[in-house]
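Q: Can someone sanity-check these two? First one:
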Amino acid sequence: MRKAILCMVKTDIHDHVAYLVKLRELEKLLTTLSYNTIKKFVQSRFKPSVNYCVGKGKAYEIKDVVDKNKPDIVVFYNVLTSKQRYNLEKLFGVPVYDRYDVVLEIFREAATDKLSKLQIELASIEKEFPYVKLRASMKYLRHKAGFRGPGEYAYHKTISALHKRIKRLRSDIEKIKKRKKMQIDRIKERGVPIVCISGCYNAGKTSLFNELTGCRKPVSDMPFTTLSSKYSSIFNGNLYLVDTIGFVLDQDPRLIQSFELNLMDIRSSNRLLVMFDASDRSEVLKLKVDMLLRMYKEIGVDSKLTLVFNKIDKIKESRIEELKKIESFIGDKQVFYISVRQRMNVEELVKHLKELS
């Protein structure tokens, strides 16, 4: 496996648990990309430093470990500015990613359909754009000889090419978006309710979709197997079920907005089944529930949530009682505890869905 060094600036001095959970989640994602984390650095600061994210002394400490261990990549949990990334790559001499880059890379490897590839390319270019501008300016403008020297022409040519690619990608996505809206409008005109399966990755969303529809969509332990939404009618055409993209802990809001067609499915639905892996450790599950409830509230769909804790066949009976304590901050939302694999309590969820049709 390839080698990675993982770094984080922890800005909450009262955080003694959550940051460890977040680091472990990122480490799992790196494993998906065939990276073995050989070293972790965590620095507590009131805020990330402008130049290196970590302090200058810590940056040089990491450099010593990079020089000794020759990792393929250094990954920061924090989302880096262009300046921070440029300085870190110059110092370390290896590629530097943040957690946003890692998720995008997994998306890129998982993408199979045209829409997913378009959305991922657009998200990648928009994420990289400030960094490319900075690198281009450092490379070209220092070669500038007088007004409009060759360096400046090269710089503007690079930036212009990116602008044109972004414009083309947005145009292609907009065409698909219009077709998607027409599809949703036709369903709504017939008065057929839409139920969207959402939630965290690897929670069993596609497994539930397959179970209820009879479809055979690919299911994998790899994160983000589903990137583009899949519609299927159930209950003799009286309800449409939608399988959509999963979310990762601390997902960057820009990445959520990049998958605007998936957001369209979520916003257009009459009911949103939010799925979680009940076998996750308590501290992980609480963070995921809190994150998604806040995210759906920001999107404006929190009033139509039904929470589904899957994989209860993997946990002890006493753990289910522990899970029910989470309901204290869920509010009045309906909650189901199921196992798609063992078909435990799935009929109760089906009954809930039939009440909508």
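And here is the second, same format, sequence then tokens:
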Amino acid sequence: MGQLTRAIGQFIADMRYESIPPAAIGAVKNALSDYAAVTILGRAEPVTRLISSFETLGATGEASVLFSPVRADGRAAALINGTSGHAHDYDDVGIAFHPAHPSVAIAPAIFAQAESMGASGRDLITAFVTAYEVWSELASRDEDPQHLKGWHPTGAFGTIAAAAGVAKLMKLDVDGCVRAVSIAASQAAGLVANFGTMTKPFHAGRASAAGLMSARYAQSGMTATPDIFDHSKGFLYAVSPRGKVDVERPAHFGRVWHIVEHGVSVKLYPMCYGTHRILGTLTRYAADEDLKADDIANVSFRTGPSRVVPLVHTDPKNSLDAKFSAEFAVAMAIIARRATLAELNDNFVNREDVRELMGKVKRDLDPARDMASFNQEPDDELVFTMRNGASRTLKLASPRDQAISLDRETLWLKFLDCTSGAMNEAAARNLFYTMQSLEQLKNIAELPLASVAQAAAE
């Protein structure tokens, strides 16, 4: 058995709730509260309806769909919930070693498994931390973000992480845990070229469902290679952009807690996280300085090439495209002076003033700017050349949205906004505060639900 693969299996099998740092528990509860909100929000999206139409839904089944009384088998629930949670691209981001969406890949699988076996809130938290740490440990071994090769880490690494979390819930032994993540590694998928389409949220749903089933297959005796992460033809080398993979370093499990050091960022804007530096800084600046689109001759967005890999649309034509566009982010921040769900519609994207301002934005890519971590130094800039000849340079500050420190009121306001079309405020508050005290829940199946699954069931 490979050294690294064995260490991962051992960590999964040995992980205990009592080992988790208190700060990590708070971060997980915030991340899972946010996951519930965005999953409910995505219930009526076309991709959620489409995926749901192929599954058998009803009053019985292993797990709830969209936090509602509608139920399905665990695989279907994980698939639908993961897809719905990522449908608006409003879900959290994390894993400092490459940009990814941890909760929508991990949470649907562990919720489905936890419901099916009557696991507790503490069991769920333990499974989430296990999954996150395995994901981060693997991601830390490559010098390059996998986006550069065209892989979407949420779909690829998320499958393995989901399997790790479910294997923990199922209390598989070391060999069983190794088989679970090895089976999952052969199902890793998701391509950057599909960003801005329905297939991107499907990446998350598929990762979660495949991870869940990988652990179940392992429990039933399916075999898989015991050195999937050490092998020269294994997962890490296969997805690496340049093959700069370190499989020799001892694992950091227990000595470094990645979820504390790097954390989970709760999105405060319903856009690709690559735009959040622009949005967080420019919305305030535009309002404070009364910046007007008509006064601007052109805008230079100075950043690193790896940072714009997810921002695949320079001339978006619809709201799905616009979520992955720096040009739209600049135009929205200046014209609307905010970035909310209300602006993410085709009419706003195609407004004449929005399209005109997007056309003024050019990308100035400097590889040296990639040296700083995305959520560390504020080294990106917007340079405005005004019609009167003046020039303004705006430093883009790092987003302040870490789940480990995000105040409850900010999280609650987002939760309420996301769920307002599905439940009244009292019901939303009940679900929110249950998620916020998850460690006290004796059985995940007792989570309060709301009748929000009609979109999936119809």
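A (reply): Looked at the second one. Residues 273-396 form a domain with the 60s Ribosomal Protein L30; Chain: A; fold (CATH 3.30.1330.120). Residues 324 and 411 are 23 Å apart (CA to CA).
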